[in-house]
Write a structure and sequence with these properties.
The complex is a heterodimer of chains A (293) and B (355). By secondary structure, chain A is an all-alpha fold. Chain A has a domain at 81-248: MetI-like fold (Orthogonal Bundle), CATH 1.10.3720. Chain A contains twelve helices and no strands. Chain A has helices at 2-39, 57-64, 66-98, 104-116, 119-129, 136-143, 155-183, 188-196, 200-228, 232-237, 249-259, 263-292. In chain A, α4 (104-116) crosses α7 and α11 (249-259) packs antiparallel against α12 (263-292). Chain B is an alpha+beta fold and 355 residues long. Chain B has two domains: 4-233, 3-Layer(aba) Sandwich (Rossmann fold), CATH 3.40.50.300; 239-344, OB fold (Dihydrolipoamide Acetyltransferase, E2P) (Beta Barrel), CATH 2.40.50. Chain B has eight helices and 20 strands. A six-stranded mixed sheet of chain B has the order 6-7-8-3-9-10, sandwiched between helices. In chain B, a hairpin with a 2-residue loop joins β11 and β12 (251-254). Chain B starts with a strand and ends in an 11-residue tail after the last strand. Classes of the chains: A mainly alpha (293), B alpha+beta (355). At the A-B interface, α8 and α9 of A face β6 and α2 of B.
């Protein structure tokens, strides 16, 4: 009896979500399947009918391409730098804000501003700020006698500038999540530890860090997944340059597909990127499920 | 000889409210002392000030001869058991128990010896490798107690440690706490809102009301001679009956009865108090009967509570044998021993001194 009702409810729910599911299939699943197909054939925009099946040769070809490998290593460096720095800064700020008693809301609003901005806007603003001759940053530096810096024109500078802008944009995400984690920690273990004679540093390493572990892992994983896909900031600020100093893999794939018009090769690379993101997401999902138990 | 003494201790919060108001208390060495009161009466705050978890706004705290107001909590040599146990959720039972010893640098073999001693005492040996999340409420409670015992402190401060347990376990833990107290022979200050806990465990009870000490005394002293109507109604279950009366010529008149009393006050309105067990049913022509009418009989098993309506409409509770067969509306005659009467000032609620 109840099983029949449950069955009926399931069908009803399915029917109600069907239009949405169809739309999703159209805009998400279709492109993915199309990409899988183009990545295994010699599809070309010049002659779409030319679609002989090639198997995995584009995939082996991808790893044999020095530019792709370079893009992967730049991405790895970027992701590590961004996630680690954002975590350290974010945790420090969250710890400080956790102690704030008055006006927490004001800090929250200020912190959330960058997060509310579109990455394109962030990129444009910072590109203006960092303009070698007209930017406000170099102007301010000149006031204290520091010669102008070419923030985006020199390979090393450009990499760290992009990292810094990404931190400016995304660090609030870490702060907000970590702060929520800190606020949810029970107070009594700290009092118990204090009675036992544990100081601030001990409390941090013996209580806060272990208790925060789930929040930290989830925050890092989510941020990691998004960092791997970073595209907009690069497109606006550097177009992967100078040279290929800031060419992240998603930007490289875009360039390969729509500037080089090598769609099938780019598709294979996109699938590789998709698999990486998928693996990270699966890891996150599994971790969160283990927490729930 | 380590006495804990509070002299004029006051806690005022930043907002201006006073949680604890000029409390004077002396807790003797080795005593089981219970701070009793309703929530918000300042009993937990008092305990937390003794522990050093809350700063003292004014007044002095002495442990032994030493003034402790500014002493760091860890140097007060006290152990605290929290209401929700405050175990470290990421550590095993063993990790929880040895946390303090590790922090204080107790050598490994000594740690093991004392751990074995305490786990044996509390029956925790099978759970040493479990985390708090895998323990029942009673087991967590034991771990919290064990952590306190391993501190080997001058006094144990217990902040409503039994209130998260179910009724049966609570009764069991009461007995165990008393046993434990006898065994370790240390001072225990136990905060509770449960008057049964206070009556059953305490050497002395301090009843707090609105941040002030209402009365301090041995359980039966507090029960028999409450200092005011608040104490009278907060202790006992059901509480002391309070009915309005009038004092004239050495006798108190209430509900159509007149009973001789020996209080110093000569006359005027009073509040008459008597415990449910001080009333007994009598055959109508007995000496000094009070006439009443049955409202309800609540059978408790061992005995029953009879709710009776006195002349004038006042309802009182009385303890009667369980097999009392009376139905609502039936008239009854009730006897009350005048020695058991307590008179209170109707304005201040304070007890009227006896002659």
């Amino acid at each position: 009896m109840t099983a029949a009702i449950a069955q009926r409810d399931r069908w009803f729910g399915f029917a109600m979500t069907l239009p949405g599911l169809l739309a999703l299939l159209l805009v998400v699943l279709f492109p993915i399947l199309f990409t899988l197909w183009t990545s295994t054939s010699d599809f070309t925009l010049l002659k779409p009918s030319n679609d002989a099946f090639l198997g995995l040769s584009h995939y082996t070809q991808a790893f044999a391409t020095p530019e792709f490998r370079h893009a992967l290593s730049v991405t790895l460096a970027f992701v590590v730098a961004v996630v680690v720095l954002e975590f350290l800064v974010g945790f420090a700020v969250a710890l400080a804000l956790d102690k704030v008693e008055h006006g927490k809301a004001v800090y929250y609003v200020i912190l959330l501003f960058p997060l509310l901005m579109n990455p394109i806007v962030v990129g444009l603003i910072w590109k203006m700020f960092l303009h070698p001759t007209l930017g406000i940053v170099n102007y301010v530096l000149s006031l204290v006698g520091i010669p102008p810096v070419d923030w985006l024109g020199v390979p090393d500078n450009a990499f760290w500038t992009v990292v810094a802008v990404d931190i400016w944009h995304q660090v609030s995400f870490m702060i907000v999540l970590l702060l929520a984690g800190l606020a949810a920690l029970p107070k009594e273990p700290y009092e118990a530890a204090r009675l036992e004679g544990a100081g601030t540093i001990r409390c941090f390493f013996w209580i806060t860090l272990p208790l925060m572990r789930p929040v930290i892992v989830v925050t890092l994983l989510i941020r990691l997944i998004f960092a791997v896909k970073t595209y907009d900031i690069i497109y606006i600020m550097t177009r992967g340059g100078p040279g290929q100093a800031t060419e992240l893999v998603s930007y490289y794939i875009y360039r390969r597909a729509f500037v080089g018009l090598d769609v099938s090769q780019a598709s294979a690379m996109a699938v590789i990127l998709l698999l990486v993101v998928l693996a990270l997401t699966a890891w996150l999902h599994r971790y969160m499920r283990s927490l729930a138990q | 000889m380590t006495e804990i003494r509070l002299a004029n201790v006051t806690k005022t919060y930043a907002g201006g409210q006073t949680a604890v108001d000029a409390v004077d208390l002396t807790i003797h060495d080795g005593e089981f002392f219970v701070l009793l009161g309703p929530s918000g009466c300042g009993k937990s705050t008092t305990l937390r000030m003794i522990a050093g978890l809350e700063p003292i706004s004014s007044g002095d705290l002495f442990i032994g001869e030493r003034r402790m107001n500014e002493v760091d909590p860890k140097d007060r040599d006290l152990a605290f058991v929290f209401q929700n146990y405050a175990l470290f959720p990421h550590l095993t039972v063993k990790g929880n128990l040895t946390f303090g010893m590790k922090l204080r640098g107790v050598p490994g073999p000594e740690q093991e010896r004392r751990l074995a001693e305490v786990t044996a005492m509390l029956g925790l040996a099978p759970y040493l490798d479990r985390k708090p999340g895998q323990l029942s409420g009673g087991q967590r409670q034991r771990v919290a107690l064990g952590r306190a015992l391993l501190r080997d402190p001058v006094a144990f401060l217990l902040d409503e440690p039994l209130s998260n347990l179910d009724a049966k376990l609570r009764a069991q833990m009461r007995t165990e706490l008393v046993k434990l107290h006898r065994r370790v022979a240390r001072t225990i200050i136990h905060v509770t809102h449960d008057q049964i806990e206070a009556m059953t465990m305490a050497d002395r009870i301090c009843i707090m009301q609105d941040g002030k000490v209402a009365q301090v005394g041995a359980p039966m002293e507090v029960y028999r001679n409450p200092a005011n109507t608040f104490v009278a109604t907060f202790t006992g279950s059901p509480p002391m009956n309070l009915v309005p009366g009038r004092l004239e010529h050495g006798a108190v008149q209430f509900a159509g009865a007149s009973l001789p009393v020996d209080v110093r006050a000569s006359g005027g309105d009073v509040t008459v108090g008597f415990r449910p067990e001080d009333l007994s049913l009598v055959a109508a022509p007995a000496r000094l009967p009070i006439n009443a009418e049955v409202v309800a009989v609540e059978t408790l098993g061992a005995d029953a509570i009879l709710v009776a309506s006195l002349i004038g409409g006042q309802e009182v509770g009385m303890r009667v044998p369980a097999d009392t067969a009376l139905s609502p509306g039936q008239p009854i005659a009730v006897h009350l021993d005048p020695d058991r009467l307590r008179l209170f000032d109707p304005g201040s609620g304070k007890t009227l001194p006896r002659r």
